[in-house]
Amino acid sequence: MWDYQSLFRVSAQLIAEGVFNLLDRNLRPEVFLVGFAAAREPDEPGAVRLEPPTHRYAAENFRLVKERAVALEADTVRDVVYHLHADDHDRSEKMRWYGLVRRATEIELRTLSAAEGRISFCSVPVLLNGTLVMVVVQLAADAYYSYYSLNEDPASESRPPSLLLAVVREVLLECTKALRGSDAEEGRPLLDRDYNELLRAAGRRFMHAPAGGNHGLYDACNGVAALRHEGDEGRGTMILARRNHPAVVPVLTLEAPVPLRDHRSIRKLLEMSEGRTALISDATQVFGLGYLVEPTDPAYEPLFTVRFTTHYNWELSHAEHVMMRVVSGTPRLPQRRIDEQYFTQTIRRMWPGMGDATVQTLWELGLKATTQPTGTILIISEGAAQEAQRLSRQCFRVAPRFMTPPVLRLVTNIDGAVLIDPQGTCFAIGAILDGLATEKGDSSRGSRYNSALRYVGSSQYPVLAVVVSEDGWIDLLPSVKK
To answer: How far apart are CA 460 and CA 466, in angstroms?
Structure first.
């Protein structure tokens, strides 16, 4: 298709892994390219090209895409649009055809992906060297569908029904921009956007749904969460609803509504929210206090709720399902407890000969660590005894003993990591971890996460870190075999 297609595909794969791994490592993103030669018939050699050429799919799988796109065009009711300039009309028709090719490709991929337990998303095609090039992102279907989503048309570009789909679209848009950019003329489109910046853009895109299409709600919530009132952290709830919504019982109405851009006033008004009673906002201004009727009430309707949890942190919910958590201005998916299957697979990959009883013991300890409300780190290391000796000046060494969940609950009440070996024997508590700086660090995360990441990356022993951040975020950080 062009000289640097392999470089671009690898770059796209890296950015997809970087972004989606920040959300959920179980998503397992995969990126490949599909190209359709514009001047060739579907049956001609080279009419369909794949990158990598050795991909498990074949060109034959996409032979009928153009034919299907023509059928979709015939079935689509067209809106007549008048353009003042012929160039505008041509561009509109071209983009319309590109959209049909995209839809047809996604239909062809639907069956292929489902058979593999995957779900596929395609970018808008870009014409390069006479070939319509399309980026395909695939995710693990079980992980993707495990997150709550709105019952809205997923084809709506402006209001994605979930944060995850908003991130998918932002990744694909970034790839499309790179292909269309000035570097594409030289054949070397670049993908170098910061992962967290991309996630923030996706968060803004997703907030168009609860905001009714209004812009600025995401940044307004960040502005409110960043403020303190008389030294206290911002805590409180805001219900997003239109004025006089039948599902909202008014408690207090402001004579002069307060714009959401007035962050200090909104932060002060949050002090009045308590229990079910919350601020009521139409996503542009706050006009009073009220509460949502019970689900058994005929007037009930699930509404969006913004809950400000701690300083710089807030979350968006719908029908009591948390859809997005924003930590220090960057969105994340709602954190689930450790998945037992993923934990077990990770343990067995690192220590293949481990018995079932020991795996179960480690799982129970890992699960107990996630219940620590102030956060903690559990280090499972083959060199736990040696590491306790090495870190003796920055930890509390203990007489080796078999760790149990009740004891783990006690020892995680103090700061620092707990060091145990793969058999569950504890050698140190309250350990301050060290390690070399790594490019995998995340400035939007706390010191606990980044210190564990440095320690795991520098350890000479096989090690698995269970990191529970104070904001509730949970990570499994396994070391890479050297």
So the answer is: 18
Mean pLDDT of 35-60: 83
Determine, yes or no, domain membership for 212: no
Q: Where are the alpha helices (DSSP H) in 207-241?
A: 217-225
Say if residue 308 is in the same domain as residue 432: no
**At a CB cut-off of 8 Å and minimum separation 6, what does 113 contact?**
119, 120, 138, 141
pTM: 0.74
Q: Based on the domain organization, do 403 and 453 belong to the same domain?
A: yes
pLDDT at 107 over 70: yes
Residues 48 and 87 in one domain: yes
Task: Report the DSSP pairing between strands 321-327 and 330-332.
Answer: antiparallel
- Classify residue 254 as exposed, middle or buried by CB count within 10 Å of its CB (0-12, 13-18, 19+): middle
Quick check: 23 and 171 in contact, CB under 8 A? no
* 79 pLDDT higher than 70: no
Strand order in the sheet with 330-332: 248-259, 285-292, 278-281, 236-240, 304-310, 313-318, 321-327, 330-332
Q: Report the number of distinct structural domains present in the chain.
A: 3
Q: CA geometry: angle at 392 spanning 391 and 397, to 5°?
A: 115
Which of 63, 96, 95 is CA-nearest to residue 78? Answer: 96
Q: Do 124 and 99 form a contact (C-beta atoms < 8 A)? A: yes
Q: Indicate which CATH number applies to the domain containing 289.
A: 3.40.1700
Separation of alpha carbons 345 and 359, rounded Å? 10
What backbone torsions phi and psi does residue 318 show, to the nearest 5 degrees? -145, 125
Distances in Å between the Cα of 44 and the Cα atoms of 35, 41, 55, 276 are 14, 5, 20, 65
Question: Do 350 and 326 share a domain, yes or no?
Answer: no
Task: Identify whether residues 187 and 261 lie together within a single domain.
Answer: no
Would you put residue 53 in left (φ > 0), alpha (ψ -120 to 50) or beta? alpha
Percent of the chain topping pLDDT 70: 87
8 A C-beta contact, residue 334 and residue 147: yes
**CA 239 to CA 269: how far, in whole Å?**
13
Tell whether 232 and 326 lie within a shared domain: yes
Instruction: Give yes or no: residues 177 and 258 share one domain.
Output: no
Helix (H) or strand (E) holding 369: helix 356-369
Residue 471 included in any domain? yes
**Residue 175 is part of which domain span?**
5-206
The pairing of strands 425-431 and 278-281 is unpaired
Q: Which two tokens stand for residue 415?
A: 């700061």
Cα separation values, 215 from 137, 151, 161, 240, 265, Å: 27, 21, 16, 14, 20
